[in-house]
Amino acid sequence: MAVEEPAFKTVLQDGAFEIRHYPALVAAEVAVTGEQKEAASKGFRVLAGYIFGGNRRKQSIDMTVPQELTSETIAMTAPVTQTQTGGEWVVRFTMPSGYSLDTLPEPNDLRVRLRATAAARFAVIRFSGLARPDDVGAKTAELSAWMQRRHLRQAGPASLAQYNPPWTLWFMRRNEVMIPIEP
């Protein structure tokens, strides 16, 4: 499936680990509660409502096939990320690079926030599978240990990035744990 991914520059690659620099991006996000899988499902449904026309322009945002920006359809990018902060999960869809906060349609659902993210560096580890909480915890610990060995300082909470639709076979799924690091 041809889905736009945010551009980034690989600063360092060390086996399964990378340091990446991402430019400023635009995202739609929602804060939800619950266990990881439940929160992901709730957040996904709310954001899907927005991208499937639940906005002031009734503009559809296609998740799987990029469309021309002039067609009144917006192609969503991958990954979909989840970040736990306190008792909430923030589920985020990154918007296509051709959009700004001024050009995206306003959400009808007040829970959906459109926001710009600043340019940032992330330590990243990629893995396949279903991204169960135990797997994510183990990969987060593995990435944190690698960061310690490299004397990298964490600048925020870890996020789970998932790139594939739910019908993708488990062994073909691409997941990443991403931890923001100080410049």
Structure characteristics:
9-stranded antiparallel β-sheet; Multidrug-efflux Transporter 1 Regulator Bmrr, Chain A; two-stranded parallel ribbon; 183 residues; alpha+beta
Structure write-up:
This protein is of the alpha+beta class and 183 residues long. The chain has a single domain (9-181), classed as Regulatory factor, effector binding domain (Multidrug-efflux Transporter 1 Regulator Bmrr, Chain A), CATH 3.20.80.10. It is built from 2 helices and 11 strands, in the order βββαββββββαββ. The chain has helices spanning 36-51, 133-149; strands at 9-14, 17-22, 25-33, 60-62, 73-75, 80-85, 88-94, 113-117, 120-127, 159-162, 175-181. The strands form 2 sheets. The protein has a 9-stranded antiparallel β-sheet, with helices on one face. The protein has a two-stranded parallel ribbon with strand order 4-5. Strand 6 (80-85) and strand 7 form a beta hairpin. Mean pLDDT is 87; it is low at 63-73.
Average residue pLDDT? 87
Poorly predicted runs are: 63-73
Instruction: Compute the separation of the termini in Å.
Output: 33 Å
Q: State which percent range the strand residues make up.
A: 25-35%
Task: Report the C-alpha radius of gyration, rounded.
Answer: 16 Å
What's the oligomerization state? single chain
Order of helices and strands: EEEHEEEEEEHEE
Structural class based on helices, strands and sheet pairing: alpha+beta
The CATH topology is given as Multidrug-efflux Transporter 1 Regulator Bmrr, Chain A
- Please write the CATH class name: Alpha Beta
Shape: globular
Question: What is the total domain count?
Answer: 1
